[in-house]
Structure prediction request, 392 residues.
Amino acid sequence: MKLTFFVILLIVIIKSVSSQVLCLFAQVNGLYTCTATIINPLGLNNFTQVEGIHFTGGTDEDVVRIERNAVSNTLNFPSIFCNQFGNTESIIIDNIGIERIDENAFADCRDLEYLLLQSNRLREIHENAFSENLQLSILDLSNNQLIRLPGNLFRNQINLYFLQLASNQLQELPSDIFNQLSELGMLNLDSNQLQDLPEGIFDNLPNLYYLSFSFNQIVKLRENLIDKLYSIQNFLAPFNQIIYIPRNFFDGNPYLSSIIISGNNLTILELNPIPMLSDFWFEHNQINAIDERIFNNVTLRSLNGGPNPCADRNGIISNPTNDDIRAALHRCFDNFNPIETTTTPGEEITKPTTEPNGCEVGNIEERICQLEAENAELRARLEYLEKIVLGR
Ligand SMILES: *[C@@H]1O[C@H](CO)[C@@H](O)[C@H](O)[C@H]1NC(C)=O
Ligand SMILES: *[C@@H]1O[C@H](CO)[C@@H](O)[C@H](O)[C@H]1NC(C)=O
Ligand SMILES: *[C@@H]1O[C@H](CO)[C@@H](O)[C@H](O)[C@H]1NC(C)=O
Prediction:
């Protein structure tokens, strides 16, 4: 009874104030956090104070994390938050109806590392929105309504590691949009409306190891598209309308291990050898011929090759032997006599010609070691994201 009364009172108070920004302060997993209620349906940005009562001893400077209260409803993220809580490292403001990011929204959060903006109604982002956030490491803009992005939006994101742009309505990308992202490890462009990936778009991503653009409308892959993705391990392009992959398309990618090109319009698969190929999925295409030499001297972890005109539906085959490959795909080959794998761990592979900054080239073990370290770092970061930032 009493509780109901208070809830009603609270709703009356919230409704009677047209715009409001306030914090509930608390220690969450050792991080002094502002749980923000932002009621700002007009998208005002002239607030002078975020209300709220600190914990004993706590000050505005102690706040390192801002997380939205689910009752929030706002068209923007008022810049008063970063004005007042300048030491904030994580901002989690998903699912509260944000439609635009103003120029100065995050400008005063110089230490910002994690910014989660997914599942809003973002249509516009000011080109200077992130210009002061040099520490930004994880940025999630997925599940919004972005149609285009300013070409220089990420010009200062020299520390960005994870960029999530999936499930928007992006129709095109400026060719220089990722040019400064020298630390980027993962890029997700899934479920947009991209018809083209312009010349040079991935030319300055020496550390990218995961690229996914599933569920777009890409028809042609430019011959040099991923030539400079020296570190790429996972190439995911399923469910586009790709009609052809040039034979030398993967030649500049010595560490590539997963190629997922299912659900496209490929009719033929003729690729140069891919030494570390491990997962290879190309079911649901129109493939009627494969150059069998792709299976020479590789040890697959998984294969999914059918249905295709030359292969029956066969699902994912784990650790396929040459006999398994022959059984699954025999109608795709003229002749199938794969050379068995001769690689032994630690063996030298052909020296790649390109060398990213600070990356030791040569001994394959060194490189695998380095990639494992990077993966461990990603796991640690994602764990942090799940457990602390998302409070799970
Ligand atoms: C902010 O702008 C709105 C609309 O222009 C105005 O009604 C309101 O009084 C302003 N608030 C402050 C604190 O200046
Ligand atoms: C790809 O195949 C689908 C279904 O078979 C078809 O609707 C589409 O037009 C094809 N696209 C291209 C570019 O050939
Ligand atoms: C198999 O691959 C290894 C390492 O990639 C290479 O050194 C070797 O020459 C290859 N063997 C054949 C027969 O292609």
DSSP finds four helices and 19 strands in the chain. The pocket of 2-acetamido-2-deoxy-beta-D-glucopyranose (ligand 2) is lined by residues 219, 241, 243, 265 (CB under 6 Å).
